[in-house]
């Protein structure tokens, strides 16, 4: 469907904005570095739908698991011990699950870029 130049469309749940961000972030990498970036980023990236599903676990007694997935350990502990801030925080995170995933994915893109850039 998409050509070899668009490997990012292989990620499930990816938005056109995320693809544009990744293309811009990897523009200065050579082909070898882009392949390395793609391999690293694909292991770190979180699908927004996965964040949504794990957030729903907050209503059955496992609040904050999605925050642990996003490397927000402090918030995860706070949510876990306060029942998702009395479910209000869990509801807010359900509404904002795409933003949470996008911010995490941007951080992982920066990390992956710097790792790929180190290898020549």
Automatic annotation (TrEMBL):
The TM2 domain, residue ranges: 51-95
Example of a GO cellular component annotation carried by this entry: membrane
Organism, as annotated: Mucilaginibacter limnophilus
Pfam families (alphabetical): TM2 (PF05154)
Protein's UniProt keywords contain RNA-binding: no
Membrane topology: Multi-pass membrane protein
InterPro entries, sorted: TM2 (IPR007829)
Signal sequence residues: none
Transmembrane helix is among the record's keywords: yes
Source organism, top-level taxon: Bacteria
Main location: membrane
Protein name as annotated: TM2 domain-containing protein
Transmembrane segments: 51-70, 76-96
Record localization: Membrane
Phylogenetic classification of the source organism: Bacteria, Pseudomonadati, Bacteroidota, Sphingobacteriia, Sphingobacteriales
Keyword vocabulary terms for this entry: Membrane, Transmembrane, Transmembrane helix
